[in-house]
Write a structure and sequence with these properties.
- The protein is α/β, with parallel strands linked by helices and 748 residues long.
- The protein folds into four domains: 111 residues, no CATH class; 122 residues, 3-Layer(aba) Sandwich (Rossmann fold), CATH 3.40.50.10610; 240 residues, Tetratricopeptide repeat domain (Serine Threonine Protein Phosphatase 5, Tetratricopeptide repeat, Alpha Horseshoe); 152 residues.
- It is built from 35 helices and eight strands.
- The strands form two sheets. Strands 3, 4, 5, 6, 7 and 8 form a six-stranded mixed β-sheet that branches.
- Helix 18 runs antiparallel to helix 19 and helix 23 runs antiparallel to helix 24.
- About 8% of the residues have low confidence.
Amino acid sequence: MAVNPGFFEELKRRNVLKVATAFAVASFVILQICDIVFPAIGLSDDAIGFVIIALVALFPALVTFAWMFEFTPVGLRFTRQVSIKESITSRTGRKIDFVIIGLLSLALTFFAYQYFQIPDPLPTETDRIAGNTSLIQTRVAPSVVDEDTRPSVAVLAFVNMSSDKENEYFSDGLSEELLNVLAKTKGLRVAGRTSSFFYKGKNKNLTEIGKELNVDNILEGSVRKSGNQVRITAQLVSAGDGFHLWSDTFDREIDDIFAVQDEISSQVVMAMKIALLTDGVMVADRRTNNSEAYDVYLRAKNALYSRQFDAVLHAMDLYQLSSSLDPEYATPRIEHAAARLIAYNNNNYGTLDEASSIAKAELDKAKSLGFETSDYYATLGLYHNHMGYVYPGNFVKAEAAYLKAIAVNENNVNAYIWYSTLLRESGDHNNDEKEIQLLETALRLDPLNRVANGNYGVSLSQHGRLEEAESHLKRLAHLDPEYHTYQGNVGIHYLTSVRLEEAIEIAVKLPSTDRQKAYIASTTLFNYNDIDAVLDLINQVPVESEAYEYMQLLETTWNAPRVELIAEAKVHLLQTDEEAYGLILINRLMQYGEYDVIRRLVENALPKMALVDPDVAGARYLDGSRTAYLTAIYKLGQTERSKLLAKKILAFNAGVPHMGIGGKGAADVLCYQVLGQSEKAIQEFLAVTRAGWLGYYGDGYKDHPLMDELRDEPRILGAIKKIEDELNRQKEAVYEKLNRHNLISSSI
């Protein structure tokens, strides 16, 4: 049947086609606006569906309206009542044309934004890290450091709903594994484990948690485990308004647990509408199909988290068991390597050779399994960092590994923490600010991370930013009073600031087994050269504790006759990495004038003691051993070599504050004396005194052989009196506190 062509002409005349076109374009623009605005105000995709239905329903009504009515100079009238001669539809049509052009321009803008926008490129490794040093190409990721706008989520510890409360390790482990999967998602910022798990068992509003962790979304849930069956309930909540974005329940067998983790993480990402730069969530390359191996691995992970020495040892045993149950399960191997290095570094467990060889074997096995993940590279960096104490070239390898770890996963908190440690121990003070930036990045990712927080406070103190350090450390001690390391860090800060009575006030509150308690108390007493009180303190330390081991080393040193002391230097120190003990031993040898023993001790001792050359990395804390070595070779007649070393030490110390954990103290005074520049030595001694330095005066500098020529100089005498007056001012309060808590029996 032929269609009357006049009908189409009438459609045109009445602007029906133009109205339909304008409406179609306007609908597209409206839908694009809704797609952007609705998620921001907490509306789901269902709301967009309602908008589409409304627009579809409106279309026929609008077309009918255009056909039946016409705008005239005297108002709206039925088209049939307007003669063609009086009609102004042509003018109305031109106005609609302008509307269509405007809407099309807006629509094309949205179209270009959606389909042709080039995403911001990921920073290259060169762009990511900037700056260099004489030792290490030190680079920090500005894209991460400065990035606060990425979509973010915190994974709270899933609640253990199992009848057996011992299964809590499983719910915690599953939560952390899910967190790790999400952390590997490009463009997503994920709060670290420490911060997320801080709220475990606490009845706190999710909105408050979101503000404290600075995240937009929170994933929470529960786990019910029974035999080989597990039910996981998860929900994603907007931290801003508490609106539920997504929830689901999964009933699975344990053997299928990794698939569940991937499924949950994928749905979370979809719910958050994150545009991934990969095909999806990046998951581990190789997991395990052995449910028992996975169960043991989760137990190990839970034990390692506490960082308590016994728990770390237990974790290492469990990691090995997990690997034996599934030799191709790489994750426990990587974490076992890290645990072994941590045990050596934090607790002096075994020797460096033992720790490094075990760690290297585990990492090599993981690599052979094709498991070169971010955690693999971070742990490889930790291994090279430790080996750098023996082979300085490993520091460069460590840096490369940390950079790779961050490139693979920009949410890897450990990579930032360990990288900062590398910079701290690099011996190059140009790294100081970069070291702090890395820790700040770690804290943005994991605000409550104990290691990052503690290291940050220590770094501030070390770099002479004493007020900032004190404020930070005090806040931590108040925030997490059960974590005694925070309390100890405050005490050490007071100690290095020579606020001895405040340091002791902290020390007496620490557990009797705490190594920091013994260190703060003994170091304070060394400032008074009160060896009897130190030995008295040793008797108060419980046997078979870290503190007891440390104090026994001190007792051995101070009770040994000269001949035994020399033998101790040749044998015992070579079997320990106890730096503080080594420096005390050196001071004792200095009193006996055993310069050749000191020389051989420093040259042949374990790596940290051997790094006397400031050109070698890893010498941040070694002013005592370096200046002792300097004194020894100077007294042994190696004049030119001692002058060369003195110049190197002065150059190394150029950027170091007088005060702080890493402060140079009076080391420069000794260097100027070796160089024969007595006036500069005097000026430097006056400078450190004005800065407030008092540390180790009684134990080290008061009778130091290089000070012999200066001791009677009037300005030096005045400075010495200032030091002794301040020490004596605090002495009464120090001894009163120690006696009141029965730590010593001696009095002033």
